[in-house]
Amino acid sequence: MGMTQMGMTGERGGNAWVGPDVPQPTRWPALPVSRWSEIRDTLQLWLQMVGKVSLKNTPMANHWWNAALTVTARGFTTSLMHHPRGESFQIGLDLREHRLHITTASGAERSMPLTSGPVRQFFAELMGRLDELDLHTDVWPMPVEIEGAIPFDRDEVHTVYAPGQAQLFWRALVTMVPVFGEFRSRFVGKASPVHLFWGGLDLATTRFSGRTAPPHPGGAPHCGPQVMREAYSHEVSSAGYWPGGDGEGFFYSYAYPEPAAFAVAAVQPEAARWSADLAEFVLPYEAVRRAPDPAAALMRFLESTYKAAAEAAGWDRARLERPAAPAHAPQLRPPS
Q1: pLDDT tens string 206-228
Q2: How far apart are CA 76 and CA 201, in angstroms?
Q3: Taking residues 46-61, what's their average pLDDT?
Q4: Does residue 132 have a pLDDT over 90?
Q5: Gap between the Cα atoms of 299 and 35, Å rounded
Q6: DSSP state, 62?
Q7: CA atoms within 13 A of residue 172's CA, in its CB half-sphere
Q8: Which three-class secondary structure state does DSSP give residue 139?
Q9: Cα dihedral 178→184→185→186 (10° resolution)
Q10: Segment 57-67 mean pLDDT
Q11: 3-class SS at 109?
């Protein structure tokens, strides 16, 4: 119910068939942007709607972490939100069933299909489901960080959703998350969770030196300067994956403020390069998935670019890092 014909019968995407009753795709699937950009844009707008609901129903946390989304074993979810009328709830996008679920702590639920159709219609249905649960939430309907954005309630342009291709994107993120998580575990200073920022649709994690940063100049579309100033209030080294640009998207790593000589640092693996246009190091996703050991290639990129930023900026690395974290935390036992 609610799936397009493509999703019901299976779709050739990446390097395996996807859909009900067919083999699942391999890890690190191919993600040609040209194949799924329309689907990506629709999915991003849906996730922005959900993120804006979270923004209105959670206390402000540093760097907007309260509103970021989490990758789950089924798709994406908000954190637990608390509505002003007293009910706690969360919203998840299930990319196995291809449905959006709103679940309250008292047990009430509403859901709606993830299927092709105008963004305007999806927005109206989402707001309607919230109203049915007495969770009415007013959100600013203008998408953020998107050039030429159309308000959700007027968008008849973005209409395309293909379950199989969206699922490949989610499966790629599921494969990346443990690598980013291991990288994050090697840092004992302040560090963000590994989360999905719905503004740019990028999976990211950020390390902080502990020092304040100069006010960020801003400039992202439909984002007031206070948004970026909060996000970059302190000195950072940030890394993530963005499903845009050419090819299959890319991993990135940048520092704010950018330290002198950062751009000319030697980083790994060989396919990594400095992008003057983006002011960050980039590594094509395709180069990672084709590597003999993709996880190791990605880790080399994360570690080498962080090291370049930290050394160029004079971070207190001895205080902020540990050599490596165990793959799994030891079981805690009560004292004998």
Answers
A1: 999 999 999 998 888 888 888 88
A2: 12
A3: 95
A4: yes
A5: 27
A6: G
A7: 30
A8: coil
A9: 120
A10: 90
A11: strand
**Beta-bridge mates of residue 255:** 237
> What are the beta bridge partners of residue 195?
204
Which residue, 182, 161, 166, is CA-closest to 25? Answer: 166
Per the CB < 8 A criterion, the answer to whether 315 and 286 are in contact is no
DSSP 8-state symbol, 69: B
Give the integer Cα–Cα distance in Å for 121 and 138. 16
SS3 251: strand
Q: Is the peptide bond before 214 cis (omega within 30 degrees of 0)?
A: no
- Using alpha carbons, select from 251, 257, 264 the residue that is nearest to residue 237: 257
Q: What amino acid occupies position 144?
A: V
**AA letter at 327:** A
User: What would the two tokens of residue 40 be?
Assistant: 């990506």
- Residue identified by tokens 């959100």 is 139
Take residue 214 and report the two structure tokens written for it.
């100069």
Pairwise CA distance, residues 58 & 50, whole Å? 12
DSSP 187: B
Sequence-ordered alpha helix ranges (H) in the chain: 5-9, 33-57, 119-132, 163-185, 225-231, 285-289, 294-313, 317-320
- Distance separating alpha carbons of residues 312 and 306, to the nearest angstrom: 10
Residue in this structure with the two tokens 């050739």, named with its chain if needed = 12
- Are 146 and 51 a contacting pair, CB within 8 Å? no
pLDDT at residue 127 tops 60:
yes
Q: To which residue do tokens 């030697």 refer?
A: 266
Residue-level pLDDT at 101: 98
